[in-house]
Structures are given as structure tokens and as C-alpha cells.
């Protein structure tokens, strides 16, 4: 199956009335990649997936599968299969009949059908449930049937629309591992849509973060987390401290002014003028009051939340900005209390400068958890 | 204390059941009367069903033809209105864009139009614009189909909503061309709604008086309700009760069959699914026949 299964989107646009829900998306997904489209609800990620599947027709742009333009090809003639958020199993058919449904259109004989259904059930570890009706299965089992029903057709590209969205947290983690195993075993291209950053980080080779119909940033999970291009990406993937600053290029990095304080960042090509300084809470170092040196600011502890493996400390800087620090519980971490005066160290290599991009007002709280 | 309150509720329930069932039972009782009276017990017999050589349902040609006409209309209406209604429901469900809302509301209009207005309209239609059809059995069938289609649409669209568009998309996604999506997925899932529709249309048609009356062309297009109405003011005999009892039996049989079919068909399905289909059927049945 390797060699086939590339997906290419060119200027893909879909409008409902005046609003473009998908606004000119260009993407190239190579064969065998686990590609995730991540974004809040309403960002156009599901519509994008549905255009690849053929359920929606783009107003502009093209969908190419293995180099062939399939923009006008109806869903039942496209060589991709979909796993739906709702599973969309056929309630009047048994598990085996559900899985065998598509094989009829692959002109499979009875013996081959039986063999492939058996293999697919084994792949997703469905055991002896073949004669059951979907209603007699648990959510996780139904999810496996939906997966087997799509994979049995050996599609070069599998589309997954929030497939774990309806499952409880424990099961999600198990199935994440399993999805990744199946994807690697079959070398199928997965295009995976989710609003869950953990899912995106855990499984993906590459992630595209979508916002308002556009791709905000596309890269490996590590790229996105450690070098977010925009405040939106920084906030959506993990927690981020976003501090408004004035920025100018200086000495291969950036010099930032924050009130009467000066900070240095190692961001190579910083924006000029108004910008946002971003640092992850786990990179923020707390030092005893009165510490001096580069990128050190005085502040006062406002709130401490003890979470066992770390404590989350909110510090009000002298400039008025609120900064969150995650202090790991490494056995001898100091206990902070409200009102403690501390020095906050924002290390230059961890401090990134982002352009202000009309993102929501910088928010020192943890990233909002979007609902599907 | 609690027991007392429960006894009170049970009492009210039983009073209600007796109140609604006793008149029916009494009517059935006099269908089996030996004598001519429709109000005094006079022994038991099948005289008014089959035995009386002139006045029984079997041997009185007017009663027998009324029964035949009613069953003919009901069967024809059921077999025409159900496929039409299913097709209309599928079409309306998929219609997106200009005119969608208007079409939706127009489909439901017959449900709220007073039947008399509806019947007069049809009468005018068949005596003027469609005078080549004219009054009679064909007009009566068309009339019955026209008002029952809305019920079919309501039932089938309800079911379509429960099924959801995603199973259709899933079928297409797995390679099924549109006709196969309909045949292998949509229609099987619609079966409970289709059975319910057949039954409702049958019940609506067999119960109908106003439309049948307006579109009738003479003695041979007289239906059971029309016959009972006419004869009740002339010289009623227990044969009328016998006729009504037969109608009741036919309706109950249809209900029973539909219930059994649904039970068997939705056995493997989610419990709530089959129960809601049955519940839907029950509400529409009661709402339908009280028109």
C-alpha cells in the first residue's frame, strides 16, 4: 500500500452563504502519514474532511488523491474511507454484515469476504462479536467495528472525524495507542480531525492547527508546541503565558521592552513593534526575591494550586502582567504561598516573540478546552 | 397513605377505561342479538351477521357492498399513499435551498385543514377541472390518498430523523451507489415506519366519512360509515352493529399485525428504537382515527 495514499488540497474553499467555513486551504499529505487537523469547533476542520470524503463539494479549489483530481467524483467512487464520530453503524445488520458491507463493491467472492472480515476483526481486536448487532456493543466496541468496516476495504487514505469524541477518557487513551499501532502496521495515510490537543500530540506525525477556515500552522507536534507561530497556536496547544511587549531585532534575536524592563529572546526573526512574548508555564523559573541578571523580573505570588506532580503558581509581575509557572514536584521544591515575593526568570531560549495577530486578548490562564 | 393515593389513581383509571369501552362492548353485544332490538337483550345469535336471509350483513346487498367499498378504498389508499408518502418524505428530507420551507409547510397543511373544507374543495375539483375523472370510486381513492399522504410523510420523516444522515453517508463512503444506499440501508431502516404508515392510512380511510360522502357517485360507492349514518335515521337493525363490529375487528387485526411485525423486525434493534416506533404508531393511530 505504500507509495499510494497522498492527499493534496489546493485552495480548497467552502462557503455557507456569506461566510467561508473553509477558506483557501493548501495541504500536501504524503503517503503513510498520520496527519491531524486540530482546531476548535466551527473552525472548518470537519468540513475539510467531508470535502476529502466527497460529502461536501467545495466552492473553489481541488482535492487530489494520488495526483488525480477527484473534486467532482461522488463519495461512493472515491478511494477513501471514513470513520464517523457517531460511528454510523448500520443498526439492522450484524457486526460481520457491517464490516462486509463495502466488500460487495470490491467484487469479493464469499470466501474472500469471509477471510477479509475475519482479518479486519482480528486487526481491531473484536474477538467473537461478529454475530452481535451494534446496539449490543459498548461504545468502544462500536468504534472498533466502524474502524474495521473502513479498513477492510484497504483504503490508501483513511479519514477519521473525531472518532474518539464519544468515549470516556480512559478508553480514549487506550484507543489512541491502538489507532497509532494500526496506522503504522498498515502504513495507511490517516487524516484525523480532532479538537483534542492530547490526541493530536500523542498520535500525529504532523498537525495542522485550523482557525476560522484557515490553517494557522502546520508542523510536527514538537514544532507546534515549542515554536508556535502565533499566539492562537500557542494557546490552543498546551498552556502559554502571553505577555504584550514592544519588540525589535537585536543581535540575532530580539530585544523586548516590557514597561521599564528589558528582556532578550532568541527568536531569530522577531516582528518589529507591538508583539507578544510567549513562554510555557513549565519553562518559567522561580528564584528567591532579589535575584538579578538577564530576563529576571520581580513579582508576587497571587495564587498557588497544588496538583501533586507539580504546583501551579500565578505571579503578578511588577509590570502588572500575570505569569503562570508550573513548578515540578522534584522532592525538594519550595512551598510557595500567596503574597510571597519572588523573582521570575524567563529564559531567553524559552521566550518566543510572536506577532500580534488579532488573537483573543492574551490570556495567562490555561488554554480553553473547546467543546466539540 | 401511599396505598390510598394509589387506589384513588387506579379507580380513576378504571372509571375511564370502563367509560370508554362499555359503549363499544354494548354495541358489539347487540350485534349478536337474537331479536330486532338494538337496546334490549334478546338472546344470542349470528342472525345479523350471516343467518338472516334478507337483513344480515352477508345477505343485505347494501350492507355488503358498503363493506366491500370501504375495504377497497382502504386497500387502494394504503397501497398508493404509502409509497408516495415515503418518496415525498425522502425528497423533502434532502431538499436544501429555495422553497424548502414552503414545501414543508404545504405538506403538513392537510393535517390542519378542516376535513369539510378539504372535501368541498375536492368535490369542486372533480366536478369541474377534473370532470373527466368525475365522482365515484376513483375520486374517493384520490381523496383518501391526498389527505393520508401527509400522515405518511410525518411518520417517515420522524424515522428518517432518528436514523440520521450519517448512515447514508457511511454507505456511500463504503462504495454503495445511491440506489443501493436506498435499498440496502434506508428502506430496511424505514420498514417500521412503512408498516406504521400502511396501517394509519388504512385506518384513516376506513374511518372516513366526509370525503367519501362528497366524492360518492351513488349507491355502489357508499362506504360503511355512510351506510351506518344513512340507515341509523331510517330503520336501524342490529345488522348495523354487526357491520360496525366487523369494522372494529378488521382495524384491531391490522393493529395486531402491525404490532407483531414491528416487534419481530426491531427485535435486534435498540430497545428504545422499537418502542419509540410503536409509540409513534400509537399516538398517530389515536390522533388519526379521531379526525
Topology:
The complex is a heterodimer of chains A (372) and B (291).
Chain A: E1 7-16, E2 19-29, E3 34-38, H1 45-53, E4 60-65, E5 68-69, E6 80-83, H2 95-100, H3 110-123, H4 139-151, E7 157-161, H5 169-186, E8 189-194, H6 197-203, E9 206-211, E10 214-219, H7 221-226, H8 231-236, E11 241-250, E12 253-258, E13 261-265, E14 273-279, E15 285-288, E16 296-306, E17 310-317, E18 322-328, E19 341-345, E20 352-355
Parallel strand pairs in A: 3-8, 3-9, 6-7, 7-8
Antiparallel strand pairs in A: 1-2, 1-4, 4-5, 9-10, 11-12, 11-14, 12-13, 14-20, 15-19, 16-17, 16-19, 17-18
Helix pairs in contact in A: 3-4
Chain B: H1 2-31, H2 47-51, H3 61-94, H4 100-112, H5 115-127, H6 137-163, H7 166-173, H8 178-207, H9 210-215, H10 224-233, H11 238-265, H12 271-289
List the keywords.
heterodimer, A: 372 residues, alpha+beta, 34% strand, elongated, disordered C terminus, B: 291 residues, mainly alpha, MetI-like fold, 77% helix, 0% strand, globular
Amino acid at each position: 500500500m505504500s507509495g499510494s495514499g497522498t492527499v493534496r488540497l489546493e485552495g480548497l474553499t467552502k462557503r455557507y452563504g456569506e461566510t467561508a467555513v473553509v477558506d483557501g486551504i493548501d495541504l500536501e499529505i504524503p503517503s503513510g502519514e498520520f496527519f491531524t487537523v486540530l482546531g476548535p469547533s466551527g473552525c472548518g476542520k470537519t468540513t475539510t474532511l467531508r470535502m476529502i470524503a466527497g460529502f461536501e463539494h467545495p466552492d473553489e479549489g481541488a482535492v487530489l488523491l494520488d495526483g488525480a483530481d477527484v473534486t467532482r467524483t461522488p463519495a461512493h467512487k472515491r478511494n477513501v474511507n471514513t470513520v464517523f464520530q457517531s460511528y454510523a453503524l448500520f443498526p439492522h445488520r450484524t457486526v460481520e454484515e457491517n464490516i462486509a458491507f463495502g466488500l460487495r463493491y470490491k467484487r469479493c467472492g464469499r470466501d474472500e469476504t469471509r477471510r477479509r472480515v475475519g482479518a479486519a476483526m482480528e486487526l481491531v481486536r473484536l474477538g467473537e462479536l461478529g454475530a452481535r448487532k451494534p446496539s449490543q456493543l459498548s461504545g468502544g466496541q462500536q468504534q472498533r467495528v466502524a474502524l474495521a468496516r473502513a479498513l477492510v476495504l484497504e483504503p490508501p487514505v483513511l479519514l477519521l472525524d473525531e472518532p474518539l469524541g464519544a468515549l470516556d477518557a480512559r478508553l480514549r487513551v487506550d484507543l489512541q495507542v491502538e489507532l497509532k499501532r494500526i496506522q503504522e502496521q498498515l502504513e495507511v495515510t490517516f487524516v484525523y480531525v480532532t479538537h483534542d490537543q492530547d490526541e493530536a500530540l500523542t498520535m500525529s506525525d504532523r498537525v495542522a492547527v485550523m482557525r476560522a477556515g484557515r490553517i494557522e500552522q502546520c508542523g510536527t507536534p514538537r514544532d507546534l508546541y515549542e515554536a508556535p507561530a502565533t499566539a492562537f497556536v500557542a494557546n490552543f496547544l498546551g498552556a502559554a503565558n502571553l505577555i504584550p511587549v514592544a519588540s525589535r531585532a537585536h543581535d540575532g534575536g530580539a530585544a523586548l521592552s516590557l514597561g521599564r524592563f528589558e528582556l532578550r529572546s532568541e527568536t531569530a526573526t522577531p516582528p518589529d513593534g507591538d508583539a507578544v512574548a510567549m513562554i510555557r508555564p513549565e519553562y518559567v523559573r522561580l528564584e528567591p526575591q532579589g535575584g538579578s541578571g538577564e530576563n529576571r523580573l520581580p513579582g508576587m505570588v497571587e495564587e498557588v494550586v497544588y496538583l501533586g506532580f507539580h504546583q501551579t503558581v500565578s505571579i503578578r509581575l511588577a509590570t502588572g502582567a500575570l505569569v503562570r509557572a508550573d513548578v515540578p514536584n522534584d522532592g525538594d521544591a519550595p512551598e510557595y504561598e500567596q503574597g510571597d515575593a519572588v523573582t521570575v526568570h524567563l529564559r531567553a531560549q524559552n521566550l518566543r516573540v510572536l506577532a500580534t495577530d488579532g488573537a483573543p486578548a492574551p490570556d495567562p490562564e490555561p488554554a480553553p478546552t473547546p467543546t466539540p | 397513605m401511599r396505598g390510598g393515593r394509589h387506589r384513588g389513581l387506579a379507580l380513576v383509571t378504571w372509571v375511564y377505561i370502563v367509560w370508554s369501552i362499555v359503549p363499544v362492548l354494548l354495541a358489539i353485544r347487540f350485534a349478536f342479538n337474537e331479536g330486532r332490538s338494538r337496546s334490549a337483550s334478546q338472546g344470542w345469535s349470528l342472525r345479523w351477521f350471516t343467518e338472516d336471509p334478507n337483513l344480515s350483513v352477508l345477505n343485505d346487498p347494501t350492507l355488503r357492498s358498503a363493506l366491500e367499498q370501504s375495504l377497497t378504498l382502504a386497500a387502494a389508499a394504503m397501497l398508493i399513499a404509502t409509497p408516495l408518502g415515503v418518496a415525498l418524505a425522502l425528497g423533502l428530507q434532502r431538499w436544501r435551498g429555495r422553497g424548502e420551507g414552503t414545501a414543508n409547510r404545504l405538506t403538513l397543511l392537510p393535517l390542519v385543514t378542516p376535513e369539510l373544507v378539504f372535501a368541498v374543495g375536492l368535490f369542486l375539483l372533480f366536478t369541474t377541472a377534473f370532470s373527466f375523472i368525475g365522482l365515484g370510486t376513483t375520486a374517493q381513492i384520490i381523496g383518501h390518498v391526498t389527505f393520508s399522504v401527509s400522515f405518511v410523510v410525518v411518520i417517515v420523516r420522524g424515522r428518517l430523523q432518528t436514523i440520521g444522515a450519517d448512515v447514508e453517508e457511511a454507505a456511500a463512503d463504503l462504495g454503495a451507489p445511491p440506489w443501493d444506499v436506498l435499498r440496502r440501508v434506508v428502506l430496511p431502516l424505514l420498514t417500521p415506519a412503512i408498516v406504521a404508515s400502511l396501517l394509519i392510512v388504512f385506518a384513516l380511510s376506513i374511518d372516513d366519512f366526509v370525503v367519501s360522502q362528497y366524492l360518492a357517485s351513488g349507491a355502489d360507492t357508499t362506504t360503511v360509515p355512510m351506510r351506518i349514518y344513512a340507515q341509523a335515521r331510517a330503520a336501524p337493525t342490529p345488522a348495523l352493529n354487526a357491520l360496525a363490529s366487523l369494522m372494529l375487528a378488521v382495524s384491531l387485526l391490522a393493529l395486531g399485525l402491525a404490532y407483531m411485525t414491528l416487534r419481530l423486525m426491531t427485535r435486534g434493534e435498540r430497545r428504545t428504537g422499537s418502542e419509540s416506533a410503536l409509540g409513534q404508531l400509537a399516538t398517530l393511530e389515536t390522533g388519526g382515527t379521531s379526525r
